[in-house]
Write a structure and sequence with these properties.
The protein is mostly helical and 233 residues long. The protein is built from 8 helices and 6 strands, in the order H-E-E-H-H-H-E-H-E-H-E-E-H-H.
Length: 233
């Protein structure tokens, strides 16, 4: 159940300020037509046209997001973010609210469907796996913790768990979906043996006690496509 809290915070521009803004915009119109690339200062305000554009964008975003608002808007007001940062945050909220929830397979056109694994020999399955991982990456989905899985196990996981998963399909560039092919809580022994670094192993031991499993070399090391800000893993 979605909790909705009606928000009626202070407007960023009151009616008097809005009227003044309209008048000042009219004053600068001719200069903008003559010098369209210039960052114009509005006389007597210390405000640039870029700031005015951001204020107008902010008002539009707040109007559009009003049907969806909750406590996060009140938190946003209390933080007094720079106007451009606030606008980016509001746009991301709008994108989230408006984006459809779809099976990941339907993020593709046509829908991404994989052959049944029992119809593929190892060579063909490896080829299908490489293509599937690349196509997921094209939709900003990256796979993590795969090096303990054989090609067939990873292929089955994509077919069984990832493609049917219902997820928000956000606009390109907004968000990367990291799919961890291992639950570090329920599969702690595998995570500790293959993936946890020294600090993570020490933290786990301090919290849970007992004995740590020895480190092991992953049996199926891979270099999968990663997010643009990461090296391949």
């Amino acid at each position: 159940m979605k909790k909705v809290v009606n928000w009626r915070g202070p407007n960023r521009l009151g009616s008097r300020s809005a009227n003044r803004l309209v008048a000042l915009l009219r004053i600068t119109t001719a200069r903008l037509l003559i010098y369209p690339c210039e960052q114009v200062d509005i006389p007597g305000t210390g405000t640039t046209m870029d700031q005015v554009d951001q204020l107008l964008r902010n008002a539009r975003l707040r109007d559009e997001i009003e049907p969806f608002v909750d406590e996060s808007i009140a938190m946003l007001d209390s933080r007094r973010l720079p106007i451009d940062v606030e606008n980016e945050f509001l746009e991301s909220m709008l994108d989230w609210e408006r984006s459809p929830v779809l099976p990941i397979s339907q993020w593709f056109d046509p829908e991404l469907q994989l052959p049944a694994p029992d119809t593929l020999d190892d060579g063909r399955l490896h080829g299908e796996l490489v293509v599937a991982v690349k196509r997921l990456h094209d939709r900003q989905i990256v796979l993590e913790f795969t090096d303990h899985l054989s090609d067939r196990e990873l292929y089955c996981l994509i077919l069984r768990d990832i493609l049917p998963a219902q997820e928000k399909r956000l606009r390109a560039g907004r968000q990367w979906l990291r799919w961890q092919c291992l639950d570090a809580e329920t599969d702690a022994a595998i995570w500790l043996a293959f993936y946890a670094d020294d600090d993570q192993r020490d933290d786990w031991l301090a919290e849970h006690g007992g004995r740590l499993p020895p480190r092991r070399i992953p049996p199926f090391p891979r270099f999968l496509p990663a997010r643009p800000d990461q090296a391949s893993f």
